[in-house]
């Protein structure tokens, strides 16, 4: 993860230092441990290592997404669990281990679009899914599987940066020159899940 972040830092420093100024310093090991204790799950090593290097961003970072700090990961997870609880009360009891269409408690958010949409890492290896896989959660409709792990997401971002695929947007973040992440233009290899 350190090599990937060095590539990102070098590009941001050379091309958009104002964006680099919005990237926080790394989280303390104790803060990460506390988050894991509260969540009841150990974070995948790649996300954990990334948080040690950079503990989120101060604002929109790329394509409207904000990388979440350790504290914001916990806050976003609690919001989703509260909504899930309310939905379960309305719908009746859910069988143990059954997934509901809206949210799964083993999804740990690491990026927010600011409107309830989240990028999450799946941390339940017993689910039959790949532990560590990345889910794009759309709060009003469906979720997408988008990558096998966090390292793949960050590495693809670094590759796209170095290829000149991003420009500074009017909000002080980066905007992809070529990608669109909406229902009509899904990322390659993605699939809708839990329709």
TrEMBL record:
Pfam families: SMI1_KNR4. SMART domains: SMI1_KNR4 (SM00860). Residues 26-163 form the Knr4/Smi1-like domain. This is Knr4/Smi1-like domain-containing protein.
């Amino acid at each position: 993860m350190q090599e990937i972040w060095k590539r990102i830092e070098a590009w941001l420093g050379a091309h958009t230092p104002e964006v680099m100024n919005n990237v926080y310093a790394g989280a303390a090991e104790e803060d990460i441990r506390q988050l894991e204790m509260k969540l009841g799950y150990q974070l995948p090593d790649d996300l954990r290592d990334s948080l040690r290097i950079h503990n989120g961003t101060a604002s929109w970072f790329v394509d409207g997404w904000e990388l979440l700090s350790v504290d914001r990961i916990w806050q976003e997870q609690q919001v989703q669990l509260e909504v899930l609880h309310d939905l379960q009360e309305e719908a009746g009891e859910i069988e143990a281990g059954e997934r509901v269409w809206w949210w799964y408690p083993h999804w740990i958010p690491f990026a927010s679009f600011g409107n309830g949409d989240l990028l999450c890492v799946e941390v339940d290896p017993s689910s039959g899914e790949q532990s560590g896989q990345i889910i794009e959660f759309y709060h009003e409709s469906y979720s997408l599987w988008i990558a096998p792990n966090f390292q793949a997401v960050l590495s693809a971002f670094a590759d796209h940066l170095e290829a000149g695929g991003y420009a500074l947007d009017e909000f002080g973040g980066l905007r992809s020159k070529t990608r669109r992440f909406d229902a009509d233009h899904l990322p390659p290899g993605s699939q809708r899940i839990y329709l």
